[in-house]
Amino acid sequence: MAGRNVLIVYAHQSPGSFNAAARHVAVEALQRQGSHVVVSDLYAMDFRASATVQDITDEPRNPEHFCYGDETMWAWQEGRLSDDIKEEQRKVKEAELIIFQFPMYWFSVPAILKGWIDRVLAQGFAFSMEKMYNNGVFKDKKAMLSFTTGAPESMFLPDGINGDMNVTLWPLQNGVLHFCGFQVLAPQIFWAPTFCLPQVRDAMLEGWWARLQGLWEEAPLTFVPSEYFDLSFTGGYRLWPHLKEERGGDAYGLTTGHHLGKPLPPDNQIKAVSLKDQAKEDHAHSKNGQ
Ligand SMILES: Cc1cc2nc3c(=O)[nH]c(=O)nc-3n(C[C@H](O)[C@H](O)[C@H](O)COP(=O)(O)OP(=O)(O)OC[C@H]3O[C@@H](n4cnc5c(N)ncnc54)[C@H](O)[C@@H]3O)c2cc1C
Description:
Layout: E1 5-10, H1 18-32, E2 36-41, H2 68-77, H3 83-94, E3 97-103, H4 111-120, E4 142-148, H5 165-178, E5 183-184, E6 188-190, H6 198-213, E7 229-230, E8 238-239, H7 241-246, H8 275-287
Parallel strand pairs: 1-2, 1-3, 3-4, 4-5, 4-6
Antiparallel strand pairs: 7-8
Helix pairs in contact: 1-6
The structure holds flavin-adenine dinucleotide.
Flavin-adenine dinucleotide (FAD) binds next to helix 1 and helix 6.
InterPro entries: Flavodoxin_fold (IPR003680), Flavoprotein-like_sf (IPR029039), NAD(P)H_dehydrogenase_qn (IPR051545)
Subcellular location: Cytoplasm
Cofactor: Zn(2+); FAD
């Protein structure tokens, strides 16, 4: 769709890498659709990864016990955050879609990208206790992870040695993106490009190009709405008891994280399946006595 703003937060050191190629494909495809694409090339920018007192431009309120979360929230409210953070926050505010392009490091993002998350998504700017999850600050924006792995897909299956990729993705997709309100699109995973045949790598990039043509129309991943939880201090932000009871007979948990002690709903963090469709599948599953 024309005229939309996209931010690509890109974390790879080498312009000859597969990540660089994936970034290039995204920029080309989205610009051809008329989108305005901005890239934050974190290594090229020498983006600082550590969250320190340097992130505020004057004296902290409490220098004796510097509390990064509080101090940066106040600094955000008062326009005292460092220029590099302000600039990234401006890009986030303008973007309708953010794509994070990176190689998986230690089941997560490279430190420079974690630093971007820690420093840019400051309290107040990106979340508050009143504005989180589907009531979050960025509920009208989309975000997605696009990343390469060293391991082949088989190693990240539920019976693979690394364990289920859905579990690996939960902290980033739920704990960071959805927590800030983003509608999270299914991740784009490029499995083990280093060990693929050249034609497989070409096919992966062609698949990415094809997906980008319909990206704006994609349904986001399913998370449990905040309204399902008792959002009072005394209620402990837990699932309402009547909902827990209603879900008692389901074959699967609600999401990868909200599994309620049941088997995880298949591919909850990899494919978009609505809670309604999931319930239908669940029903069919129970009916077949599986
Ligand atoms: C600290 C660290 C932690 C890690 N932790 C994990 C982990 O937890 N789990 C895991 O699975 N892996 C892990 N890895 C491995 C890492 O995820 C992979 O090395 C990385 O994802 C590979 O992507 P790349 O872009 O660097 O590939 P590259 O090696 O740069 O590229 C792969 C191949 O693609 C080729 N290529 C480049 N451009 C194109 C193009 N336009 N068309 C076709 N081919 C092209 C390149 O020439 C190369 O042959 C870790 C690595 C490090 C360093």
